[in-house]
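Re: the request from the purification team.
They wanted to know what the chain is likely to look like in 3D before they choose a buffer screen. I agreed to run a prediction and write the result into the notebook, where they can find it.
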Amino acid sequence: MNDIAQYILMRQSAGDHQSFIDLLDKTFTAFDEGHTLYTHNQSPELKPELVISLNQAQAGEYAPLVAHDQSLWLHRIFSAENTLATLLSERINSGDRSSAIDIKPFAEGLKPEQRLALEHVLNHRLTLINGGPGTGKTFTIARVVQALFSECSNTDIALSAPTGKAAKRMYESLQTSITQDTHHFELPEAQTLHRLLGISQNRAPLYGMHNKLPHDVVIVDEASMLSLELAHALFSALKPEARLILLGDADQLAAVDPGAVLHDLSRHSALQNHIITLTSSSRFSEEQGIGRLASTIQQNDPGGLDALLAESADISWYPEPSEHFYQRLFTPYQPYINALSTAEQPKALFDLFNTYRLLCATHHGPYGTQQINRTLRALHQQEFNLPVNDEAFHGLPIMITRNDYTLQLFNGDIGLCLRDSDGVLRAYFPDHEHPFDVSRLNPATVTDAYAMSVHKSQGSEFDYVALLGRAQDENILSREWFYTGVTRAKTSLSLYMDKTAIHYCLAHPSQRSTGLGILLDQHTA
């Protein structure tokens, strides 16, 4: 049953209990905003048919809402969060998963913190490797994979990430790290968590409590994007003896869906012995502005920020709208636009297109994805004298906005519309061997992709990023939003934000109300 149907049934069953309906409305609103619970200003009255206590819910009783002190859960969300806390507690209290592997051959060249991560993975059932861009998370995991295969060539390892692009980047990075070494084995393909767990439209996951995943080791990259329900499904499907390794950056934005699992785990006392934080970045030098800006955001240190933005060679700061604003945003795509007339291989075009991206806070207004995509589409069409009413055309970048299980295209997937030598316009996606006729795509679930939200950019990296945000977007702006947007850039950043918006971001960390910490306290006490 979807959340809307559940909500309607709950309201109908409440009858004349207006106070309950008010609480239900507020709890659903909190859930829609990414929280897993609603914090009330007073403890709600318990009514066995409508609201029960946490202890009653843990004992197996049911009511639409679950209350603890001033917190309220929807029962379904409480059940998922409570089960996740139980499985986490069991995993961290189940003893070491000792290994007889001699790590010396695999620890060569690792920094002390990376070596510690390698040792921890080999001897525990749960490891969280936390760190920002360039701190060597993937390089460390490459050594982990090599060590595990050296112990047993039949070790069943699954590589996964919340999104297709994050899974693809994980596989490519691991492949690069491993092929440079003398150890050779067949690296398993990385896949989305939905595919790993067998989650499909309107169906329960194939793997779960009663049908465990066969894998001995599960490695999940970009774990900051783990929502409560996806984390619950993952932990439910693991064999008790399997190793789970979560890689991510706890300072990034939380998942689009409710929950902030990596953030919660990275700060809970019961998990501290299972977290290794990598701090030394090889991507950003101490002199590089992007790295210094990322550190400033993490530390909430606005002192000297203006000088940093004005003096850094790799950062261009535009605190006020500039002349020819949209043309300036379009110009970095010019190498890709030029290549559309000559490049024969889609991969070459993807490589060019993916060197640059526009990242926005919102979909609306002059700095929003809708206006920017509309304007850049027109500039693109002008380059080739194309009719402005063409819905799709050669070179148009597109993004899938809703899962399409028939075509195996998922929310956030980016493709290019390219005209073949036979004159047919087809949509190419990096993870698909064959393109689709554009006519097979549902226009209601496709949008232009010159610009995208920072949320959608998670799991991606680009040589050059333009980041746009206004003080008016304060319902979206946060410290995590700013940090995530800045760290998508590898070599160059254009910042279209005024001083007010920047300082607002620094002063406002994301605040998600979740119950995972409350429940972990209970299960690990």
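For the purification team: The chain has a mean pLDDT of 89.
Please add any questions underneath this entry.
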